[in-house]
Amino acid sequence: MTAENAPLPRFQVHRRDPSNVNWNQATWIEDFQFPWEATPPPSTKFCAQWSHDSLHFCFRCVDKDLVLGEGETLKERVLGSDRVEVFFAPDLTLDPYYAFEISPRGEALAYRAKHYRQFDWEWSCPELKVEAQVEAQTYSVQGTLPMSVLRDLNILKPGATEFYAGVFRAEFSHKPDGSIHSGWMPWVNPQTERPDFHVPSAFGVFELVG
């Protein structure tokens, strides 16, 4: 079997009572790497759970050198920051797909795009609810997205129990000269020559179970 027709990585999203989403008993994705540089990756964990009404997700990231972007707009601040990212797609043509990039401040940049890198920055998703917390050398982000949004966007199709998703971390750090190094950590290694999350090979499958 070649890499082109190999099965996509899968992650089981377990059902939970919405009043009892317990991340401490969850199964986590923990194998985020730096595919494009020989750097030991900091601990990065992602989990998702679902209820009848919502998809819940959580990131926990070790970060000893937090970078928080400045700027007049939310877009400038988020894209200039360490952040975590979740992408969803109706299919692997990525025409369209939907992205949510969230900073440690809890600012969320939502946008729609088409392959390749045709971004619609006017799209928004006010239904997304986010909480973030920064502690000693770590930050965490939790998000909740109504299942109705996944259905309305045709990400979760009628009668389906799985959908395409990508999960990523942008890990920034300060260089000795004060400039910023940008590191890129995917759940699924897209096998691209340069860092790129905006390709079909960066996606896996989320399977709703329970």
Explain what the structure shows.
This protein has 210 residues and is mainly beta. It has 2 helices and 12 strands. Strands 1, 2, 3, 4, 5, 6, 7, 8, 9, 10, 11 and 12 form a 12-stranded mixed sheet that branches. It is globular. The mean pLDDT is 96.
- Tally the helices: what do you get? 2
CATH topology: Immunoglobulin-like
CATH class placement: Mainly Beta
Low-confidence stretches at least 5 residues in length (pLDDT < 50)? none
Task: Return Rg in Å.
Answer: 17 Å
> What is the ordering of alpha helices and beta strands?
EEEHEEEEEEHEEE
Instruction: Give the N-terminus to C-terminus distance in angstroms.
Output: 31 Å
How much helical structure, as a percent, in the residues? Answer: under 10%
Mean pLDDT: 96
Multimerization state: single chain
Strand content: 35-45%
Number of separate structural domains? 1
Number of strands: 12
Query: How many strands, what sense, and barrel or not for the largest sheet?
Result: 12 strands, mixed
Give the structural class: mainly beta
The dominant shape is globular
